[in-house]
Structure formats: C-alpha cells, structure tokens
Sequence to fold (685 residues):
Amino acid sequence: MLVFRLRNIREIAHPAVFAIPAILESILRFTTQLWHEKLRNHLPGILVNAAAIAAFAVIVRHSTVQWVAGWTMTGLLWCVLRVLVHRACQRWATRHPDGAAPGAQQVLLAGGLLGSAALWALAACLGLPAFSVSEQFTVLVVLAALAGGATGTLASMPIIGKIYIGILLAPSCAQLLLLPDEKMNVLGLIGLVFAVVMMNSQNNNFRLLRTTLALTSDKEELIRQLSEKNQQILQVNDGLEQTVAARTAQLEFLANHDPLTGLLNRRGFMSYPFAHRHTGRHKTIIFIDLDHFKDINDGMGHAFGDLLLRAVSDRLQEVMAELALTTSAADPAVCRWGGDEFVVCLTRPAGQPGASAAEYQRMHARLSSPFQLGEHKLPVGMSMGIFERAGNAAFDLHQALMFADIATADAKKLGRGRLSFYSERSYELQQRRLRLTLALAHAHQDGSLHLLFQPIVAAHDGAVVAYEALLRWTHPELGAVGPDEFIPLAENANTILSIGRWVLEQACQLAQGWPAGADATAPPKVAVNTSIRQLIQPDFADLVGATLAHSGLAPAQLIIEVTETVLDERNMASALDTLTAVHALGVEIHLDDFGTGYSSLSRLRQLPLDAIKIDRSFVMHMDEKSVAVIEAAVLIADRYGLRVIAEGVETAQQLAILRTKGIDELQGYYFGRPAALPLQSAQAA
Ligand code: C2E
Ligand code: CA
Ligand code: CA
Fold:
C-alpha cells in the first residue's frame, strides 16, 4: 500500500521537487564553508583592530579631547570580548566540522564586529571637529584602511561586511561634510564615493569567494566520487580474485581426483608429495586389483560395476585409515589407479614398526569380505601386492609402484584373492620374464627353437601309434628354457601365433617322412599342442589345411591337441567353429590335460573330439581320487565314443593299473622320453 502511494506521488510531483534535498544539502554545505571562512579571518581582523586602536591612541595622545583614554580602554576591552567569543565559536566549530554555526554565535560574531565599527564611528564623529589637521588625517587613514581591509577579510559576510564598511565610513563622511572647511567637505564626498566602491569591492570578493567555495566543493565531490569508484573497483577486483582462486582450486581438484570415487587419480597420486614431504619416513605402497571385475561389469552392467567401485573405494579408505592408525602412519594417500586397480601409500616415522604380516592379512580379509549392494551380496576377491621401503633408503615412486605391481602379479599367479609381499626374487623373475618375452618375439626365426618327439603307444600291443611334438627353446644367453615357463609368456604376448605356426610346419614336415610300421601299418601320427589363442583365430583351419598341403602330410596323420580352455564359454563358440573345420579336414582332435580344468561334460559333447588325454598328474599319483578321475574319464569316453590316452606313465606299476582301466593308448617316460629322433625311439619301443 505504502509502495503504491509512493509510486503515485512520484508520478504526479514536479521533477524539481526531487531536487529539493540536493539543493538544501548544497546550501547547508555552503553556509558551513562560509562559517569556517568567517572564523578563519575573524581573529586577524580583531588583532588589526586592536593594533589600530593602540596606534590611534598613541597618535592623538596630545590632543585636547578628554575621552581618548576612555575610548581606547573601551575599544581594547571590546577586542578582548570579541576574542573570547571567537574562541568559543572556534571550539564549537572544531567539535562540529560539518555543521553551520547556530544563529546566536553568528549574531555574537556580527555584533562584535559592528560594535568595533561603531566605536570607530564614535571616535570619528567626536574627534574630527576637535582634532588637529594631522590627527584628522590619521583618523581618516585608519578608517580608510580598516574599510579597505574589510573588503577582503569580510568577504564571507556579504551583508554584515557592507554594514561594517557603512558604519565605519558614513558617520565620519557626514561629519566631514558638516565641517566648515571646504576641503574637508570634498574629502567627505570622496569618502562617500570610497565607501560605495569598497562595498562594491566587498561584494565582488564575496562572489569570488562563493565561486571558489563552489569549485572546492565540486573538487571534493569529484575526489569523493573517484575514491568511491576506486573502492568499488577494488571490491570487484577482490571478488574476481576470489572467484578465480576458487575456480583454480576446483580445476586442480578435478585434475587430480577420480570423478567416480573422489579418490586421487593417477595424476594426483603421482604428484602427491611423498618423496619430498616425507623424506626419512618409512613408506608402504599397496597395489590392489579386483579379481574378475570384468565379469561383474559384463554380467551385471556398468552402472552396477560403478556402484561396486564406489563401495570398494569407501571401504578402502576406511580400512586404510585404521591401518594407518595402528602403525602411526600419516593420512594414507588412496588412489584409483584406473579401472579396477587401486593404490595406497602409507608413510610412517622411520623408527615406528609397520603392520605385521598378520595385520596385513586381517586388512586384506576385511577388504575382501562380501559387499552388500542392494539385494546382492557380492564376494569380491582382491589380489594385493605390498612393497615397503625403509626411511633411509632412496625412494623412487615409479619404481615403488612397479615393485608393488610385481607383488600383485605374484598374488594373481598364486591363485588371486590373496596378498603378496614384494621380494628381490619376484623382481628377478619379473626381469627374466621380460627378457624372455622380448626374445620370444623372434624365436621362430633365429633358430633357437626345436622340437622333441615323445612316443604314444597302443595299450594292447605297445606299438607306437603317434609322437607328441614338444617344443624346446634355447635362449641365447639364458640357455634352455622349459615350455611350462615360456609358453604362457608367448601366450600373453601373442607371439604364440607365430611360434605355433612354426611348430605346426616343422611337425608336419618331419612327420611326412616317417615310414610305415613293420607290418605295413600306417606310419605314426604326429600330435601338435595348440594354444587356445591359435584356435580362436578365424583362419586357423585354413592354416592347418595349407600346412598339410604344403608338407604333403596326410590329414589323418595329424593330431591337434587342445586343452580344456576350449570349453570356457568365452572361447567356446569360436573354438568350436575352428575345431569343426579342422576336424572336417580329417585331422584328429584330442583333449589334453583332461581333469585339470573346465570339465563341463555337456560342452565336451559338442566338440568334435577323437580322444581325451588324462592329465599326467592323475597317472603319476594314482591315489584313490586320481583313480576315480581316470575311471570317470574312461566312462565318459565310452559314452561319447572317444579313445582314452594316459600320459605320464613312468612305472610298470602305473602301467599295470592303467591296463585294468580300459585305457587305449599310453605315453610317458616308461615308453620313451621326448627325443630328437622319434623313429629310433619308435623302433626301440
Ligand atoms: P603337455 O602337452 O601335457 O605335454 C606333456 C608334458 O609331459 C611334456 O612336458 C612331457 O615332457 C611331459 N612328460 C611326458 N611323459 C612324462 C612322464 O612320464 N613323467 C613326467 N614327469 N613328465 C612327462 P614338456 O615337454 O615340458 O611340456 C610341457 C607343456 O608345454 C606341455 O604339456 C604343453 O602344454 C606345453 N607345450 C609343449 N610344447 C608345446 C607347443 O608346441 N605348443 C604349445 N602350445 N604348448 C606346448
Ligand atoms: Ca600335450
Ligand atoms: Ca598333457
């Protein structure tokens, strides 16, 4: 309502109305300035007056008039009173620098001034008719000087100033005009003209002063506005600086942290000041890799995978903070290294003992206890590698991470879901693996590979029905390296493709020259071990066909040995296609190492198999469990119309048991070790 009224008033009022406050303010400012100007000139004016009184008294001391002494005393007393009034006004003005003087003070000041003028007028009126000519001139000169001075010193009092000049000059001029002396009369007239000129000059001085004061005000206003603007700019700058600083901090955080978990990211971790801030402190780097996270991501979707990563990161921070507390370590730096890998760095004072192996185990157990995510209770295995560096030893973060990673790889090799501590031995092994992997890339070309052949005999008559080609490698510096060591490395680096092709070609070429048996039976077959990596190549069957054609070996003379990894559902489809195509060529397919891995019997049936080869571990131990596996293998083989081969036969005793189980073919040191010249071995057998 009030707002509405105000708006109405604004609409109907003349614009000049709104200028009134500003006008009043400028008037107030002007009167204040005038007041200060008056005070500034007031005291000098009084002093000049007192001096003039004293001088006058001295000059006319010998005159015949009687009143001079009284007049002088009165004049000086009046000056003293005026000084007292002036001091009171001055004090008030100091206390109220921004206010004009109250009327009473203005009146007192003006009264004092006019009183002085009146005293001089009295002196002139009484003195002029009685004084000698020189005394008369003295009076006139003093009056003229006082009036002249007033034009300047009283410029701040436009009306009082003129009255002052009038009181000073008018009575004495009138007196001169009344004197019987013609010259004095002329002087009286000139005096009147002088009085008018002085008043005019006083008026001009007032105008000048007014303009000066107005200019001063404008200047002050300008300075005030400028400094206000300056202040505003400073404030804006300040705000800008704060915004920029906040933004920079935000960007810095984003650049160094993982958006999903809020943990440090790789960049943030690498720039974390471990090395310089914690010199002399003991450091522990823990590398954590979630086991089979890809399966969770693929099986339950990426959103669920993200949820799990967040839950892992929360628990990781909690558990690491507890671990830090037990070892007096500093706040742990926890990082999502990427994907499903995490890294933690703990630092503690050099003399402080770290966590014991049992404490680390407990930490690992806590970390890998099942996660409850919605209605899912999810067991998540964690492979963890720990590297410790003493405080006094040089610390290289990159190297420390590599060592922790090596320890993690050890944990994975030992079956995942566990923790491993870094050791010199693991480092040496890792270096060796690296050297071997690099050398394997050209092993098929540099003559360092060769094949040995081990006989496979028929169980019923001991005749050699086949030879298994077993690969050997001699590293130029490290010497003989066993296939159990280098085949997995070649598989990881995919060099198994070129190596496998070399093995196939060599085996086919050599076997092609093998003669038939003594009683014109077919020549022995050659069994070639084949990695799953080769089998999932879409052109593998073509390669086999081309190699057979090139070597001239009959397809029926070739056996491809595959391991149970072909039964893994991730490989099954492509491996099945390849094996079907290879089998269609007339090549036999044997399932190697039976019983060690993915024995999914239903899938076994889908493969175009000719035989299964019971893993040597069952044959060599021949305990109750092993015998059960052997019997089951024979049963399944019977069902699916497959032959059964037992490998790893070393003793007559093993052979005797196997003979009672219905095994078709046998292989092992008992019949012959892998050798370079298979035909000699075949004849010996
Ligand atoms: P595998 O296919 O199971 O080969 C049989 C392994 O058992 C051979 O070891 C052989 O020397 C060994 N063996 C045979 N009879 C006996 C015995 O009576 N007692 C004992 N203790 N061992 C016996 P090797 O030659 O060291 O080969 C190891 C593994 O390397 C092979 O196991 C096979 O998986 C892989 N491998 C060998 N050559 C090749 C190859 O050319 N390609 C592929 N992909 N893998 C190969
Ligand atoms: Ca084999
Ligand atoms: Ca085997």
Summary: The radius of gyration is 59 Å. Confidence is low (pLDDT under 50) at residues 680-685. The longest strand covers residues 464-475.
